[in-house]
Amino acid sequence: MRRAGDQVRINAQLIDATTGGHIWAERYDENNENAFALQDRVIRRIVDALAVKLSPTEKKGGAVPKTQVTAAYDAYLQGLSFYNRRTPRENATARDHFQKAVKLDPDFIAAYTALAKVYMRGVLLLEQYSLKLGFDWLTGTTKIWKFLEAAKREPNSDFYLVRSKLSLKRHQPERAVLDAERALDLSANSVDAMEALAEALIYAGKVERALETIAKAKRQSPAEPAHALYLTALAEFSQGNSSTAKASIERALQHAPDQIYFLVLKAAIHGDLGEVEQAKAVHRVFIKKTDVAWWYLEELVALYPFTDAAVMERFARGLLVTGLRNSSGAYLPLNRDTRLSGKEIKTLLFGKRIEGKGFARGFFGSTNRTWQQVRLPNGKVQHFGASIQPGVYRKNTGSGRIDGDSLCEIWPDLTSEFELCTPVFRMPPHIDRVRWGDYVLLTDSGPYPFSVSSQ
């Protein structure tokens, strides 16, 4: 792009990334009286020339971030350039640019959902990311919902992508699939949305469709294959193909050696193959990179929402040989076999008092953090004690209902718009009930064991 006064000359060229061969080129001479109108005109001309497949929303221009403040759009684009590098430091730098965009234009929806994506990485991708952003998981998740609430009047692709990620965190891959599909409907060429859909499909047990989606993501972004290779390894592991999964995760780490969550899967793969020394070596690297003295088996297993109990068991056993804390091999089996139905949740919780405490003694908080909830038969609920939902602190009153196989609640202190939908799991007989209770609520901020104490 070159500029002379009010005139702008744009040279566009298309190259085949697999061969380096020239495919197409065009020059556009335009008047720069309005940068955003210029962008729309040139995009449409290129789309027409190349017959690019767009979603209906993209054809209407809905996929282009909407703001009339040029400086806000510039800050947003700079933020994207850092966000796409996928490192903790640059994720934090992206946050600064997106915050600047929101400050310059408080109505800039895309900047809010971009901030939600930044904090989503901090919540999902272990402590290395959250420390760079300066928050704990509970605070980070609260921010995500606040950003989504700011964007709810005109939800975009990223809005649904973040909701998909939150559903996965709650071990609800079916909901995650639906939101990832909505994200793709709004932005048919979004690699983020493709990868979110593939990940949700893997955990939902629909691996063949996931691999097809991963292949599309690789073609869409051949220069940045690391995350697609990680998802390939995850899919292969879930199919029981740990040998091929090992090759895929090693290739992923070649492209992105600092992605610590890749290391968790790599350790589990080595453990599943019986390669104990290799698994221990990967675990040592993981501990060094996270700068955490130790991790617990149950913490890491809870981050990987396999619905298939057998896959979750293989994953846990693979990690156990690394020397993770909890030598008994116990973990919370949050899978389809232990999940309560909506009818069972209503019978268990409505008209009851429940009491619980923190999950593990590490990343999810202290087991000494106790809490209670009293729920009326109509679903109205009072919460006391330590927080278990983002934005819900100390004494709070909310309302709940059953939706499918989930408990869906609205907590006015957090949001008047969104329901936080929570699955409930029963603990099998071999679990330490004294430590973990009889059931588990899996909220946006993690798993919370509890027991029913009274009517």
Describe the structure.
The protein has helices at 35-50, 56-59, 70-83, 88-104, 109-124, 126-133, 137-151, 157-169, 173-186, 191-203, 207-220, 226-238, 242-255, 260-272, 276-290, 297-302, 309-320, 342-349, 433-436, and strands at residues 2-4, 7-15, 22-31, 353-356, 371-375, 381-385, 396-403, 406-410, 420-422, 424-426, 439-443, 446-454. With 455 residues, it is of the alpha+beta class. Among the domains are: 2-52, no CATH class; 225-333, Serine Threonine Protein Phosphatase 5, Tetratricopeptide repeat (Alpha Horseshoe), CATH 1.25.40.10; 342-454. Helix 13 packs antiparallel against helix 14 (260-272). The chain is globular, with a radius of gyration of 23 Å. The relative contact order is 0.07.
- Mean pLDDT metric: 86
Approximately how much beta-strand content do the residues carry? 15-25%
User: Which stretches of 5+ consecutive residues score pLDDT under 50?
Assistant: none
Main β-sheet description? 9 strands, antiparallel
Task: Estimate percent helicity.
Answer: 40-55%
What distance separates the N and C termini?
70 Å
What is the radius of gyration computed over CA atoms, rounded to a whole number of angstroms?
Answer: 23 Å
Shape verdict = globular
Strand order of the largest sheet: 9-8-7-6-5-4-12-11-10
Task: Give me the secondary-structure category.
Answer: alpha+beta
Please give the number of β-strands. 12
Q: What's the total helix number?
A: 19
